[in-house]
Amino acid sequence: MKVLESIERFALTNRIAVECLDKCLSYKELKEYSDKISMYLLKEFGEDRTPIIIYGNKDNYILPVMMGALKSGRAYIPLDITFPENRVREIIEEVKPKVIFNFTNISLEEDSALEVKGDQIEDILNIYFSELASKETWVKDEDNCYILFTSGSTGKPKGVQITKRNIDTFVIWFEEFLEFDDSEEKVLNQVSYSFDVSVIPIFIGLGNGKTLFSLNKDTLEDLKSLFTQLASSNINHWVSTPALAEICVTFDDFNSMRISGLSKFVFAGEVLTKKLVKELMNKFPNVKIINGYGPTEATVLISAIEIDNNMIESEKGIPIGYPIDSCELGIIDESGNRLKPKEKGELVVIGNSVSKGYLNNIEMTDKAFFKDKAGNQGYKTGDLAYYEDGIIYYCGRKDFQIKLNGFRIEIEDIENNLRKVTNIKNTVVFPVFNEEHKISHLTAFVVLNEDNELSNLKNSTLIKSELKKFIPSYMIPRNIKIVKEFPLNTNGKIDRKKLMEDLK
Ligand code: AMP
Fold it and tell me: What CATH number does the domain containing 81 carry?
């Protein structure tokens, strides 16, 4: 596996693999520690290949544990510190791990699994010998490498299983797209490990000898510290959701003078707005901006594109790009028929980057995954999209399509048009249901570009009158609530669930 080979190679140099709050871990240490952890897993748990659970945030020992698991032929399941404790227990019950590496202060005390606390890692490193490690035990093509539990809007979290073949397929395509080589550079490691965008720094960053500049939860919650760290980071490649950059652009000092080595922004995970791109183009005139798209079920990203000025000027939304080389991305209608260019339908992906399915959940796997005639694995993304000139445009979630007073409306259509209103920075629109579970009206949460000190009512009237120019009146939200900023979830995406609670 490329990342494991790369760790072997750069262990012979002085390169730093990870830095977090002035603490560094070299490639040499990463190799030695991961070898020892792999020896520990093989010795203590023998032939058993049950995935291990890693509960924590950005501790520097987490990467050696992940790599140690892969070297011992096991998958790891990263659970971020922000996961509620009962969700963690629910996942433990589902996975039945033999060992949990716990880097939090919460004591899990599970009867069925051994708990290794963060400070006990040193004991493992003192007892086991890296010299005995062998590549024979490393994960093989169809073995799971990681399992990520998605938010589970249906109630029960679903564990997406990602194999070595899935990761290799993604890495080969995307590292070439990013034009990565093995020069000494730094990659931002901000996204929590339980969210698959973090696979970019881990597998492509470490896979090319880069240094991961890690931002932990405490830093991300303290804007001053976040900015101080970013300004002195010397990062070359930015990887995050658009939401983090939206916070950063509010700092005057967030520009190419302060973060001078930056060569590209890689965004993924949610809609990239034209407003953000314009601001970044102003502040970072020579820095590339890349929009990547993909569901966890098809391994991080399945399309990507560099954004240019023409795309910003165009009437269309920002494209999600050209498809990954080795997979087929098609658009289908409700009956599964392939649609022509410019026709909007559900985006499906077929090929080696598609997961084998959800852990222990045949029912949900059968609903979302399928095999094509040649027996290749496919996944229905639930996203609406269309092709034009070989480029894919995202049009929102299939499940955000609603009917209001008989009109078929796509919520994201309203959001995209609201973003055209002069003083709107970003927005999220929700349907509000009545007692009979029917949609009674729409509410929009809005963050303004500039605080104009007008009342909510006055702002809402101004917004509605400008919005009328773009969409029919039946699509205009009845309520508009101005908020200072949007709450973010563990993945750094706008926390829609939290906003929705405000509607109750
Ligand atoms: P996740 O599995 O958490 O990464 O979420 C995947 C979903 O996020 C996709 O199915 C899309 O709905 C959305 N998404 C991811 N990347 C983008 C993007 N660049 N633009 C718009 N939506 C995106």
Answer: 3.40.50.12780
